[in-house]
Amino acid sequence: MIEIPDNKKLILFDGVCNLCNNAVLKVIKYDRKNTFIFAALQSKAGKKITDYLHINTTKVDSIILYEPGVAYELKSTAALKVMKDFGGLWHFTQIGLLFPESFRDFVYDFIAKNRYKWFGKKESCVIPTPELKAKFLD
């Protein structure tokens, strides 16, 4: 299993998806408490962690928020819980949790299904800049 630093939450994301990569950059921008670290689903670390969690990434096309020793979340719930950690006005995003998970995930799945068509795709995972490298697992 991959060692995840104490008090960190791991976000697993599609490393070739332009929408996903832009979302990661937004999370880094708003993560003022330095809570999150990242791994692409396609990376060695991403594969080890999804294997450990018994998540079949060919069937689960989703962001995964993993908090070691606590739980992991998928899809809309993961996205909303990430935004909750930003604090401030971002707490209003938690209103989304009032909607049934099936409805939220239906919307999430619709966007996920079309993300490459709408936002494009890279040939390989993005390599983080030297300043950001510490936030990513290999």
How many β strands by DSSP?
4
Distance between the termini: 13 Å
Task: Indicate the proportion of strand residues.
Answer: 5-15%
Estimated structural class: alpha+beta
Low-confidence stretches: none
Helix content: 25-40%
Number of domains: 1
Helix-strand string: EHEHEEHH
> Helix tally?
4
Query: Can you list the strand order of the major beta sheet?
Result: 2-1-3-4
Shape: globular
Average pLDDT confidence is 89
Q: Major sheet, described briefly?
A: 4 strands, mixed
Spatial extent as radius of gyration: 14 Å
Topology:
Blueprint: E1 9-13, H1 18-30, E2 36-40, H2 44-52, E3 64-67, E4 71-74, H3 75-84, H4 101-119
Parallel strand pairs: 1-2
Antiparallel strand pairs: 1-3, 3-4
